[in-house]
Design a protein that fits this description.
Elements (H helix, E strand, L loop, with lengths): L6 H11 L45 H11 L9 H15 L31 H12 L6 H21 L9 H28 L5 H9 L2 H23 L1 E4 L5 E5 H17 L1 H15 L3 H5 L4 H21 L5 E5 L5 H6 L4 E5 L3
Antiparallel strand pairs: 1-2, 3-4
């Protein structure tokens, strides 16, 4: 058996075992990788930076680095990696940790290390977020929805999001299950309430023509989902606003617990959760309203749903890595902006904190 693990195999090790986990929507960290010795006479590919245990493969201070990092995390090809190939990738990391790496292993064989050894159910992996989430997006954007169908698709969307958040949680600091349940219920209630309320208002608006009413209804899912995402973040992480979150100096030492840093972390996370559904739920209605006027779809109405599915898939694939790459996982803040006791506790001008995702 070859000791070389393809890129999709490295990513599968994280998505399968639970710790892309800390690169997931509700996670709180990065990927762990190693720096194996290069074999003699073997050129190192430019695409594979030197491996460093505890650090992502790509530089996280730049948007492009974060974007490439998350492209690895959400790569759907990892869904098709076999169990035996996955075990091979995981074994490489174990060999490295015990200093028994086979000769000839290079940076190309890096494996993403999870927090736990749990296997994540395929639809809830980060690599499965787009392929399994796209049908839900298509359902959310179906025209002429009844109240029952609106409730169903909003509930299904928030249920899927909750399962992804829980499956990809940060396992290094376990959170009570009650927090996830609280966030889930709050998200479902807010999403359903807003979606149903807006649909009823649009239907009762006599000033709109049927065509205009239909177009407006297509945009209803966005405010409902965005509001639910904010509600989910606040409910699940409200204790951070009261207790604060750890801030660290340049050497990784904990300086203190800051409520101000917690506010910044929640704000950045909430903005990400608002930006994420924007292209997914706003672009497809605009594009479909244009395409449906073409002779191709007018003469072939059965093609509307397949075309809409492809448009939603493309929007989802674009929006997810862009949105979660907006802010660094480990954000930096000036100590002068934090509580006086924290500013006095370190000579560092800046400290870092884990914002979560």
């Amino acid at each position: 058996m070859s000791h070389r693990a393809p890129r999709e195999l490295r990513r599968a090790a994280a998505n399968e075992r639970g710790g892309a986990a800390r690169g997931g929507p509700g996670g709180g960290g990065g990927c762990l990788k190693w720096r194996p010795q290069r074999a003699k006479g073997m050129a190192e590919p430019a695409d594979y930076p030197p491996f460093q245990l505890g650090k992502p493969r790509f530089e996280q201070t730049s948007f492009y680095g974060r974007f490439r990092h998350f492209l690895d995390i959400i790569d759907p090809r990892t869904l098709f990696v076999t169990e035996s190939r996955l075990k091979e990738a995981v074994q490489l990391l174990e060999d490295y940790k015990h200093g028994t790496l086979p000769p000839g292993v290079t940076n190309k064989e890096a494996i993403i290390h999870p927090d736990t050894n749990e296997t994540i159910f395929m639809p809830f992996r980060m690599s499965g977020y787009i392929p399994f989430g796209t049908p839900i997006v298509v359902g959310l954007l179906l025209p002429n929805q009844t109240i029952a169908s609106t409730v169903f698709w909003q509930w299904l969307n928030q249920s899927h999001n909750a399962c992804v958040n829980y499956a990809n949680r940060n396992a290094t600091k376990p959170s009570p299950t009650s927090k996830f349940i609280q966030g889930y219920l709050g998200a479902v209630i807010s999403a359903v309430s807003i979606a149903v309320g807006l649909n009823v208002l649009v239907q009762r608006a006599n000033k709109f023509t049927p065509a205009t009413r239909l177009l407006i209804q297509r945009f209803v899912p966005f405010p409902a989902v965005a509001s639910a995402n904010i509600c989910n973040v606040v409910l699940m992480r409200h204790t951070e606003l009261e207790e604060g979150i750890d801030v660290l100096d340049n050497n990784g030492n904990i300086v203190g617990s800051s409520r101000i840093a917690a506010k910044h972390a929640l704000l950045e996370t909430a903005l990400t959760r608002v930006v994420l559904p924007m292209p997914i739920l706003v672009l497809p209605p605009i594009i479909m309203s244009i395409l449906e006027k073409t002779s191709l779809l007018r003469s072939r109405p059965r093609m509307v749903l397949p075309v809409q599915s492809l448009v939603c898939l493309a929007a989802f694939g674009l929006a997810l890595p862009l949105a979660i790459s907006l802010f660094p996982q480990m954000s930096e803040i000036e100590t002068s902006r934090l509580e006086p006791e924290i500013a006095m506790a370190t000579p560092s001008k800046t400290v870092i904190y884990n914002k979560g995702l």
